[in-house]
User: Fold this.
Amino acid sequence: MMRKLLAILMAIVILLMAGCNSVPEKENTEENMATFFFPGEEVEHEGTWLAWPHKYAYKQAYYFGEDGIDGEAYVEIMEPTWIGITKALHTGETVHIIVYNEEERSRVEKLLSENEVNLDSIDFVIMETDDVWMRDIGPIFTIKDGKALTVANFIFDGYGNAIEPDYYAKDAQVAANIAKQKGFECIDIDMVLEGGSVEVDGKGTLIAAKSSVVGSERNTDMSVEEVEEYLKKYYGVTNIIWIEGLKNEDITDGHIDACVKFAEGNKLVTLPYDDFMWYCSETESDWEVVSKAVNAEGVPYEIVEIPLTETFYDELEDYGCYLNYYVGNEVVLVPIYGDVNDQVALDAIAKLYPTRKVVGINCMNLALFGGMVHCVTQQQPVIVK
Assistant:
């Protein structure tokens, strides 16, 4: 009897210590009845989340061979981009910055002050991380029942186990740890999903590539229909558009946020046909799906095309992409590369967001590590009651 009692008490303690709601979804009647909504990116933000690059990273071994690179060199390469992003965003919203420890906080505070950033707009959060891709590891903020900001905590498994568990163990806990520190309800979801693998228009439609959601060792025990149930519930959508995508081309297996974006006025932003087939897909039908996509009301989207860079960069083994831009409250942060098409992209995106300032963020350094501006940002929306 005593042994059974101890086992029960231990189970209760574990549940109380959990960062997220770990009750199985089917047994959680309240959650099953709740409604969730993920606003479009252009809707007002409370703030933007960043994870500051640090020297304690895992040496980026899977990018630069077995030995990786020195942590100090990594920071030197990456940090100017974080300064530029923070400086551009902080006048219009809070910038929540995850720093590895107190020493890093002091260092980054000094650095931002030297770059004329008002620290009153910065919220530093002490947390150990492996990497910087907040779009994929950060909290997916969804609004529960129209009134409560909730973290939908999908599983992060290192991009379908493309990297070793030791390289992402800390990142896999970031969303839950943020929820715990900030006091948000957090719901564990038994499905693998990176934030960059979906795009939503905030009006009932979500688009994704199967290659990065139900392919490449992600969710192999689930059908597409089962995956759709989770997406519809926690993103609050009714209309899901799938493309097949591009497997094994990069570590993300073709995240959609570099291929398709929704914009205000029922617009869908994508690449011209030749660029799309190079960068996003191996299947002609994917282009048909995107070019003929309709919203949740059945109305076709207006298609806006923005090309890749004119230059093929040997160091990237690719062209540069502009679609991985991020929409803040006052600004739109656009990847640039020192290419002739930089201005073409900046002008096109400025027309999409006429009330916001378009800011170019040099992303050659980020692209070397497999990402761009949208990949390192995650918005926290404002709840409008």
In short: Residues 87 and 97 are 12 Å apart (CA to CA). The chain has one domain: 36-381. The domain at 36-381 is CATH 3.75.10.10 (L-arginine/glycine Amidinotransferase; Chain A). Confidence is low (pLDDT under 50) at residues 1-18, 22-27.
